[in-house]
Amino acid sequence: MGLKELKERVLESNLDLKRNNLVISTWGNVSGYDEETGLVVIKASGVKYSEMGIEHMIVVDLDGNVIEGEYAPSTDTPTHLVIYKAFKDKGIKGVVHTHSQYATMWAQSGNGLPCLGTTHSDYFYGEIPVTRLMTSQEINCNYEENTGKVILETMEGLDCRRMSAVLVRSHGPFVWGDRQKKQLQIVWCWNI
Ligand SMILES: [Zn+2]
After folding, report:
1. Helical residues (DSSP H) of the chain, grouped into ranges
2. 97 C-alpha vs ligand 1 centroid, how far in Å?
3. Per-residue pLDDT for 192 more than 60?
């Protein structure tokens, strides 16, 4: 799959967030990683879903430099990049972040999400972990990159292919996988 096709798939996946009521306003984002070029496609910052087009799919390298696109990438891009850098060699090619209502409420409770049903167990091995509270310094300086780091800290000792999500405490879910569509299925599970 080339970058052009990846942009189309990432666009459709972002639009699916809105179609499935997983986001409000311009929040939430889906990105995709291209193994051949080592580049990431993510939606532009602050674009309304109703107006989103292929031109709003921004190509960045793993250091966050914009390679293609006229707009600034999503403000959450540093979080996505931390996840790709850590997990790409294990086949992770897509990251989804939403503020889906129930997952966000649960994240605000500060608890991991225990496996209480069959749908959860179809996608995850055990309890979905929640991150620790971030410090004031982590929040006030490079919050998005620090969010990625605290996700990795939470994943220490866990296999990112068997546990493909973390709840960021007081924020919401970040989910990853080998392709975008699968993550969307996962995120939908959290909103029914
Ligand atoms: Zn968010």
Report:
1. 3-19, 77-87, 101-109, 118-123, 136-140, 143-155, 180-189
2. 7
3. no
Helix axes 143-155, 77-87, angle to 10 degrees: 30
Q: What domains lie within the chain, and their CATH numbers? A: 3-189 (3.40.225.10)
Gap between the Cα atoms of 129 and 94, Å rounded: 19
> In 3-state terms, what secondary structure has residue 181?
helix
- Compute the distance from residue 15 Cα to the ligand 1 centre, in Å: 16
Distance from residue 129's CA to the centre of ligand 1 (Å)? 17
CA distance 112 to 106: 8
> Chain-wide mean pLDDT for the chain?
91
**What's the 179 CA to ligand 1 centre distance in angstroms?**
20
Query: Is residue 20 classed as helix, strand or coil in its secondary structure?
Result: coil
Nearest one of 41, 55, 38, 36 to 13, comparing CA atoms: 41
CA 61 – CA 159 distance, rounded (Å) = 25
Residue 58, strand partner residues: 42
Per-residue model confidence as pLDDT tens digits over 26-71: 888 999 999 999 999 999 999 999 999 999 999 999 999 999 999 9
Q: Average pLDDT of 158-173?
A: 94
